[in-house]
Amino acid sequence: MFECETTTFDQSQDLADFIIYYGSHESPFGKCVIAFIEDENEKKICHLTFDKKEPGGIKFLKLRFLGAKIVEDLDNTKDLIQNIFPKKPSKDTYKVNLLLKGTDFQTKVWESLAKIPFGKSKTYEQIAKSVNNPKAIRAVGGALKANPIHFLIPCHRAVSKNGCTKNKVGADLKISMQEYEKNLLKNVDKTTDEEKQ
User: Fold this and answer.
1) What are phi and psi of 55, to 5 degrees?
2) Active-site residue 155, yes or no?
3) Where does the Methylated-DNA-[protein]-cysteine S-methyltransferase DNA binding domain lie (predicted)?
């Protein structure tokens, strides 16, 4: 499993000074595009999307970081994906660094989402309260739709009061992510029990 540490992108910085490394890989949810920025010897993930049409994710990445140099790096991005989606469950925690690029409100919502534990959920109302704006329920939904780092910024852990699971990444994908986390937790518990014996 992993835990996320977030950094907010400084909007005053010139994107022309940045190199963004990306790669397209298989994941438990199909083809994905992941991208990162190297910052102080740390790889900070700034993009993770799942798309049957691979160019769609890359196009979205380039639009978000217009002016930056975009370079394919299959080796390092593969390592990131393998750490995020390990083949063998482990109780060890892997730290994931995220770089959030959005409005002040969006980044606050994304930071709040990143704090929701594996296998748990919060309502849109609870998320709105967590960013000190309890009436901004619809705005929370908008921030979820604008989320560029799927799964790691876990929109799938956000639910409405009536149990609706619809969001940008799609209801089916959201349910798949929820089930993936539940199964991962079960397998981690099973592995831990076996180690104790």
Assistant:
1) -60, -25
2) yes
3) 104-182
